[in-house]
Amino acid sequence: MTDTSFPAGDLLKGKRGLIMGVANKNSIAWGIAQQLAAQGAELAFSYQEALEKRVRGLAESIGQDFLIPADVTNDDEMEACFKTLQARWGTIDFLVHAIAFAGKDELQGSFTHNTTRLGFQRAMDISAFSFVDAAKRASAIMPSKENGGGAMVCLTYLGSERVVPNYNVMGVAKAALEASTRYIARDLGPEGIRVNAISAGPMRTLAMAGISGGKTLMKTGKDWSMLKEDTTMEGVAGAALYLLSDLGKSCTGEVLHVDAGFHAVGVPDISEDE
User: 38, 181, 218, 260 — which has fewest CB within 10 A?
Assistant: First the structure.
């Protein structure tokens, strides 16, 4: 059954879409998938070969069984993925892209000294270009504007806009992802396809675990935020539901911050001894 913390309804009844990037039960992509399923969506999941068993178990737990192998660095697998989608469904209504990668050695210390040419290229390829590629393929099988068009969401983080210790090359890749979101939104807008990014605050995911000092990011994210609370999966999943459903009409080319207000704080509250 779908997690009861995700409100049920029919906002996405009759809609179908692809979720890219589920790694485990703590993945943001998985939280989003649960919320979309709770609102009536039919889902397909792409996966890397090593994660098939884990992703399949999660998908089946919410009554979904459509899984497709897809390594985003492999053009043949990406082509096969979207051909499989088209063969089974004809069209898809939405795309969720939650894929990013950078080498662990490059997610600590100095950005200038620790970033290698190969590491930079790989981070940009997997974290940014993969969305451009997926958007191109997904848009080709989305309904026409007259038939409702489609919607896409990718995931980013504040390290794209501000310097975050140890985020390094991933921050640069996320900046490229956000710029790509705007350009894709411009290109696909006339086709009735909306394209947005969600900038989520620090959360306990595999991605956060791979960043040196991740625990500190979690603590400051809560202590310095306006709401004085952690970013919740329900909040991020709810934002995705808004952007992918008809609730988000007229919203495109946007980076929506879901971080308890942390992104808007210039100077954190500091207690002073009197």
Answer: 218
Q: Using CA atoms, how far apart are residues 212 and 101, in angstroms rounded to an integer?
A: 14
Of 187, 182, 201, 204, the residue nearest 252 (C-alpha)? 182
Instruction: Report residue 222's pLDDT band, with 50, 70 and 90 as the boundaries.
Output: confident
Residue with tokens 């098939």: 52
Report how far residue 214's alpha carbon sits from residue 30's, in angstroms, rounded to the nearest whole number.
20
Average pLDDT over residues 164-185: 97
The predicted pLDDT at position 269 comes to 80
Q: Is 242 a catalytic residue?
A: no
CB under 8 Å to 250, separation ≥6 — which residues? none
Catalytic residue among 47, 167, 183, 242: 167
Domains annotated on the chain, with CATH: 16-261 (3.40.50.720)
Cite the DSSP H helix spans in 13-107.
28-38, 52-61, 75-89
Catalytic residue among 47, 157, 183, 242: 157
Most distant CA pair in the chain, distance = 69
Per-residue pLDDT, 207: 64
Q: Annotated catalytic, 183?
A: no
